[in-house]
Queue: 2 jobs
Job 1
Amino acid sequence: MKAAENQKITKRSLCSVSVAAGKVAAITLIANGLLVGAAVAAPPVIELEIRDHLFYPAEFTVPADTKIKLLIHNMDPTPEEFESYELNREKVIPGNRRAVIFIGPLKPGTYPFFGEFYPKTAQGKILVQ
Ligand SMILES: [Cu+2]
């Protein structure tokens, strides 16, 4: 969402460049600043795998107050649902597919997650520090 907003703003800024030629330098600087800002704001990516109905890694640490992108590869041929009450997330990942789930910014603590289709084995937790 944030990146899209930034892009819109950037486009608008670039549009006004052609209109107000006298302000080209200043507006270009602003546009560059927004682009840099968008790049810096790109959330860190954590990659997970589901294999034999287990999460790898089953436990990992992420920084507090930071938006995180989880990229979850389901290596099993069967679907799994990533679910976490504490994170307020649930998403079905078909067999041999991957899914993206954004989490955070989170307060420090422990956030369990599990695979709803194989909850006895597929369990993990995210430590937020
Ligand atoms: Cu569910």
Job 2
Amino acid sequence: MSLLGHYAVDYLIRPLPKYHRGSRVGAGAAILVVFYLLITIVITTYLRLLYNVSRDPGLLPRASPPTKEETATEPSDRRHRRNGCRPTPQQTEKSTSSDEDVEGGLGHNAEGGAFPLDTSGLEKFYTKDVFVCQDDGRPLYCSTCCNYKPDRAHHCREVDRCVRKMDHFCPWVGGVVSETSFKFFIQFVFYILIFCAFSLIICATFTAEIKRETGGANVHLAIGIGLSSLFGLFGLGMTLSSVQLAMLNLTTIENLNRRSAVWTLAIRVPSHMLSRLNPESRWAPTFRTITYPLPPAPLNPEAAGEYQPPGEQHVFAILQTLPGENPFDLGSSFRNLQQVLGYSVLDWFLPLKQSPCAERKNTESFFELGPVVSRLKKEAGLNPA
Ligand SMILES: [Zn+2]
């Protein structure tokens, strides 16, 4: 692509004798300035993307697998459900291939019944007001990492870890594009597109002019047109698809079955309504509930039913969206884009600040929630005080 700079000098600023033209310093200088400006921003966004992918990819910690003693004291029914945390190669393959069910809260959780022996690590879920859960109200669980998964986390087989709001594994940067790097990925492919479009226009203009004046063609410019078109089309496709996903507030993985996905959510029952859940109350709730903290394991099912957790109770309604609804869609494409790109024009175009959705300032849920959740609350009668 330095071809363009070379021609700006040899053709416009100090034209070679074969072109039979006068010097056009202004046009040549302008092309050189724009060219180096664009190449600088392409390289900068690529380096920013590379930095975030390698230094802060949003990997979730792996927990230690249970000891032999723990496994031995585990009730057989629970051992069966848990799927094991020390996976054999076959089990690893099974858990990975079933990730589409468990991951992303996409509904039916065929493998979603898996859960660990102890209940540690649940505090960061039940201290929120809403989180994605399995059908029984427990958070989604990764049996490979032996850990609960925050909303929208996905197990990536390439890095063998769960990744927060994973989008895809990108061979171009050798890592996972996720909530910490999706913004810079969009910026990178967008600037690739702009750079290629600029190169294509200039190469095509030079070619047309040379052909008109000399009747010949320039093989280097023809190669420039070919390369600019090829990479430009790649940039265009990637930019359009990435921006569309950001506008819908979806990841590439969530987009795979977005039209049929059903999200199961645990939504906190407001404290002033807890007394109404009493069986003697006249209110008949339309939903199942789960109360945290959960009883410590191992505990037989009868004892678990009578278990009264010490201290504050956190009661959640277990509700499901309709197929194709996205609880993270904020109801406006612009607001969804802001969650990824930022709140100012500078944020949108410069690879400096982190995405707002990766800052995790929202204490009520892992990600900001949209009108779908408001509607579910209203329909279930979970009115705020
Ligand atoms: Zn995992």
